[in-house]
Design goal:
Oligomer: single chain
Number of strands: 4
Number of helices: 13
CATH superfamily of the largest domain: dinb family like domain
Distance between the termini: 20 Å
Structural class: mainly alpha
Largest sheet: 2 strands, antiparallel
CATH class of the largest domain: Mainly Alpha
Radius of gyration: 20 Å
Strand content: 5-15%
Length: about 325
């Protein structure tokens, strides 16, 4: 992982946060503070938590300070939250501008409840963006329910909007990409393990999150990996998987095992130079993208829709627990 790669992640993070804030400004105060079961009290609480994670981690990583938690009550409206977020964006940019590539492998140690945790810098920096994707997905679901959808926040849409077609780094390290996909598999397994506790009626209960039901969202997650692998490996467009072909979680899991068996040899065959190479494929228009950007999108897309699945599972009384990248790092 290179500093320019990390900066691209944070440019995406700021872009996606702005889309959420733009949508949230259309919500009434009563909607911002309406209680929900997503874990942060209300929409305002989830937005402040997303900001707070970036603020807290950057304070620790670059100042060595364990700052207190931001209080949602101190933000009277979205304008106040936006102003504070813009200050954090500038702090984040200044911090990232101090880094050299070799700094990304530095170790930072935190202590909590008498235990010491050792973090590799680049992994924590990626965690902050991944964490943002997770909670933005929750916020987007709430906003959509209020009639204020923020629209698509995929990493690929950001690349399109910024007309990013090349990479400024010399090469992406394949080991780093492999770590992200190991996380992706780990988090997907936690979702599937939890989903197996549901009845078939719960699995297919309609919802407004965009894929019809929890089964629809799970198949969409699998489908994205399947479609992108075929596109990146062979330049082939394949038919979308149909959720009706998967009557239970066990059948989804079995098909996912097949997909992993095809994906991992493909990834293992890529060199660092391959990852920073440009690929072209036909979509709505001809796209020219850096290969690792597409792979990073698959992981980011998974985080987004797993957050929706986790919210649905929690609503059914079966929380999958914490799916943070940092939890995976401690668990692996």
């Amino acid at each position: 992982m290179k500093v320019e790669d990390i900066k691209l992640y944070y440019a995406y993070n700021a872009w996606a946060n702005k889309r959420i804030l733009d949508a949230a400004e259309r919500a009434a105060f009563e909607q911002l503070t309406k209680p929900n079961e997503f874990g942060w009290g209300d929409l305002r609480g989830a937005l402040v938590h997303t900001l707070d994670a970036e603020y807290g981690w950057f304070s620790f990583l670059f100042d060595g300070e364990d700052e207190g938690i931001l209080d949602p009550e101190s933000f009277a409206d979205i304008a106040a939250l936006r102003e504070r977020w813009e200050r954090q964006n500038e702090i984040t940019r200044q911090c990232l501008n101090t880094l050299k590539d070799e700094d990304l492998l530095s170790i930072h140690t935190s202590k909590r409840d008498g235990a010491a945790y050792h973090w590799i810098l680049w992994q924590v920096l990626v965690h902050v963006v991944n964490h943002g994707t997770q909670h933005r997905a929750e916020c987007a679901a709430l906003l959509t329910g209020f009639g204020h959808s923020p629209g698509d926040m995929d990493f690929t849409l950001f690349l399109n909007s910024q007309d990013i077609r090349s990479s400024q780094s010399d090469a992406m390290n394949r080991q780093d990409i492999e770590l992200l996909f190991r996380y992706n598999d780990w988090a997907n397994d936690r979702i599937l393990d939890t989903a197996e506790a549901l009845s078939s009626e719960q699995l297919t209960t309609p919802n407004d999150l965009g894929w019809g039901s929890l089964r629809g969202a799970l198949v969409h997650l699998l489908d994205a990996e399947y479609v992108w692998r075929n596109l990146l490996k062979d330049g082939a467009h394949v038919e979308w998987l149909q959720q009706e072909d998967f009557p239970a979680v066990a059948s989804i899991r079995a098909r996912w095992h097949e997909e992993r068996a095809a994906f991992w040899p493909y990834l293992a065959g890529l060199s660092d130079e391959d990852l920073s190479g440009i690929i072209s494929y036909e979509g709505d228009v001809t796209r020219h993208r850096v290969l690792w950007h597409c792979l990073a999108h698959v992981v980011n897309h998974g985080t987004q829709h797993r957050a929706e699945c986790a919210a649905l599972l929690t609503g059914f009384g079966h929380s999958p627990g914490n799916l943070d990248f940092t939890v995976f790092l401690l668990d692996k």
